[in-house]
Amino acid sequence: MFQGILIDKDNSGYRATLQEINEDQLPEGDVTVRVAYSTLNFKDGLAITGSSPVVRKFPMVPGIDLAGTVEASGHPDYKVGDKVLLNGWGVGEGHWGGLAQKARLNGDWLIPLPKEFTAAQSMAIGTAGYTAMLCILALEHNGVTPEQGEILVTGANGGVGSFAIALLSKLGYRVVASTGRTSEHDYLKQLGASEIIDRATLSEPGKPLARERWAGVIDSVGSHTLANACASTKANGTVAACGLAQGMDFPASVAPFILRGVTLAGINSVTQPKAKRVEAWGRLAKDLDFGLLPLISHEIGLSEAIDAAPRLLAGQLRGRVVVDVNR
């Protein structure tokens, strides 16, 4: 038996409870992991509260990230005792995830935990930091360099935004952070933002083309914010789109793409091939200032995760929430 958060839906309604789970209930997979840490992401908040139908089958253990130790393996790449981590692959939605003390998974979804990280540090980074690095790799792939000008980071107070600012700043870029929370300006400056703008300047309907300003953009907001970011990106700049906090719509025109050669790069953090995942985590090990992790993240116990979920969705929790599943 082990402890985990189990989400169920039946005639009695939708509910998430912390309970004892029998190992026989674990889903199919060729690697069993003794989980050390997981996280509470926005998607996990939606799953736990039931405020959006992200869970595709019941019962379900939420948690789109996990780090831990291999307890049993039928996969050629992993043996008992190996330290591993996982981001994405639909865990917590269609396959039991990390907010439990054990997980059984497809070994192809795992990567070795880089030696530079503890399990807790890797989860402080989690999908958010990993996604931010995928965005930066996209900018670099398209030739965006610090010399070309400012990089806009939208949704700056969120997990992706926080890591994007920290990473870009360390890599020598001048970062402009967009946020609606004036109380968080000092936090964003500590991460490395050179300037902070009010998200209201981007979140309303705008022109098909605006004054060129950004050499690149990392956007986790979508909707009008993404459209306006594209409209004000410099010729041959790149916009990396990875989120939809404002909405899934994209009320834009083709003008930035056909008149300025702007590239809109979609970032899928869920099903990247193993080589790309290993590359991104290798860059995180090299390019992230680990000293910023306590500023970006805080830790809670598994028993606190259900109560924390609605606060996360309400924007009352800053940055990353790391979950110690053994307390």
Instruction: Name the helix and strand elements from N-terminus to C-terminus, one letter apiece.
Output: EEEHEEEEHEHEHEEHEHEHHEHE
Average of pLDDT:
96
In the CATH scheme, the class of the largest domain would be Alpha Beta
The gross shape turns out to be: globular
Q: What helical percentage do the residues reach?
A: 25-40%
Total domains: 2
The amount of beta strand, in percent, is: 25-35%
Number of helices: 9
The CATH superfamily of the largest domain bears the name: Medium-chain alcohol dehydrogenases, catalytic domain
Poorly predicted parts: none
The overall strand count is: 15
State the distance separating the first and last CA atoms: 15 Å
Sheet having the most strands: 7 strands, mixed
Summarize the SSE layout with pairings.
Layout: E1 2-10, E2 13-21, E3 31-39, H1 42-49, E4 65-73, E5 83-87, E6 102-105, E7 111-112, H2 119-141, E8 151-153, H3 159-170, E9 175-179, H4 185-191, E10 195-198, E11 214-219, H5 223-231, E12 233-241, H6 255-259, E13 263-266, H7 274-287, H8 293-296, E14 297-301, H9 305-313, E15 320-324
Parallel strand pairs: 8-9, 8-11, 9-10, 11-12, 12-13, 14-15
Antiparallel strand pairs: 1-2, 3-4, 3-6, 3-15, 4-5, 5-7
Helix pairs in contact: 1-9, 2-3, 2-7
What are the defining features of this structure?
single chain; alpha/beta; Quinone Oxidoreductase, Chain A, domain 1; seven-stranded mixed sheet; 327 residues; globular
General description of the model:
With 327 residues, the protein is an alpha/beta fold. 28% of the residues lie in helices and 27% in strands. Strands 3, 4, 5, 6, 7, 14 and 15 form a seven-stranded mixed sheet that branches. Helix 5 links the parallel strand 11 and strand 12 (233-241). The radius of gyration is 20 Å and the shape is globular. The two termini are 15 Å apart.
